[in-house]
């Protein structure tokens, strides 16, 4: 996601909910992150620069026999000391070579999403060309494979999961809900970012197929963010 991929920096991308959060919050006009996801997520969950995490050069690929070093304590592990409920919905991408590297062993009460670097948005398989070992299905609830999600757009699936967590949460306790969306990451084979056709049709005025798919995926992500914030508001959890 680049500078011009949100509504408040673009005349053709629609992200009204993100724009509202920006208008009501803080816009970091000179905030620099890593160009790929893996180092960025590691930095976010540790507060450390990727140079000190061993992830400054390349993101994890699906069959690398490594993961985010276990001696680093992650944010949800700290929050458990303060009685937080901790959940992740979406992309993990910090390693899974054994179970100790997976989300529910690193401070999260639950995880719905995927472990690898990227996948198709509808069938949830990863066909990463760099690994040259074919495709694999990667959609999970904790340590179990989700078998009934094929054909369901990942952003919609993640939204429903977030709303379920919020609805079931005991509001007398604090909640850490980490939602690293798949959108607007490239699909498994680097083709245009996938989105439901009705979202793509909204951006028919964009000539480029690549840009049109990105705009549609960004809009669906924005819609998800709006639904989550609204549900938090309805349960008086934003306070």
UniProtKB/TrEMBL annotation:
SUPFAM superfamilies: Alkaline phosphatase-like. The modification 3-oxoalanine (Ser) is found at residue 37. Its cofactor is Ca(2+). The keyword Transport does not apply. Keywords: Calcium, Glycoprotein, Metal-binding. GO terms for molecular function: metal ion binding; sulfuric ester hydrolase activity. The conversion to 3-oxoalanine (also known as C-formylglycine, FGly), of a serine or cysteine residue in prokaryotes and of a cysteine residue in eukaryotes, is critical for catalytic activity. Residues 1-236 form the Sulfatase N-terminal domain. Belongs to the sulfatase family. This is Sulfatase N-terminal domain-containing protein. It comes from Oppiella nova.
């Amino acid at each position: 996601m680049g500078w011009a991929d949100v509504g408040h920096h673009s005349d053709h991308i629609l992200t009204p909910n993100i724009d509202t959060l920006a208008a009501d919050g803080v816009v970091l006009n000179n905030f620099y992150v890593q160009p790929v996801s893996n180092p960025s997520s590691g930095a976010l969950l540790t507060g450390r620069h990727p140079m000190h995490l061993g992830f400054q050069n390349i993101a994890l690929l699906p069959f690398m026999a490594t993961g985010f070093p276990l001696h680093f304590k992650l944010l949800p592990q700290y929050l458990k000391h303060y009685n937080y409920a901790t959940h992740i919905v979406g992309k993990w991408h910090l390693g899974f070579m054994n179970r100790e590297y997976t989300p529910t062993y690193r401070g999260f009460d639950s995880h719905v999403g995927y472990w690898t670097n990227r996948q198709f948005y509808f069938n949830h398989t990863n066909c990463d060309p760099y690994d040259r070992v074919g495709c694999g299905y990667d959609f999970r609830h904790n340590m179990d494979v989700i078998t009934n999600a094929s054909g369901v757009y990942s952003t919609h699936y993640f939204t429903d999961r977030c709303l379920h967590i919020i609805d079931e949460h005991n509001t007398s306790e604090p909640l850490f809900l980490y939602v690293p969306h798949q959108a607007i990451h490239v699909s498994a084979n680097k083709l245009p970012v996938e989105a439901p056709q009705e979202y793509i049709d909204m951006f028919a005025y964009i000539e480029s197929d690549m840009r049109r798919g990105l705009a549609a995926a960004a809009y669906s992500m924005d819609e998800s963010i709006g639904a989550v914030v609204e549900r938090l508001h309805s349960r008086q959890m934003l306070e």
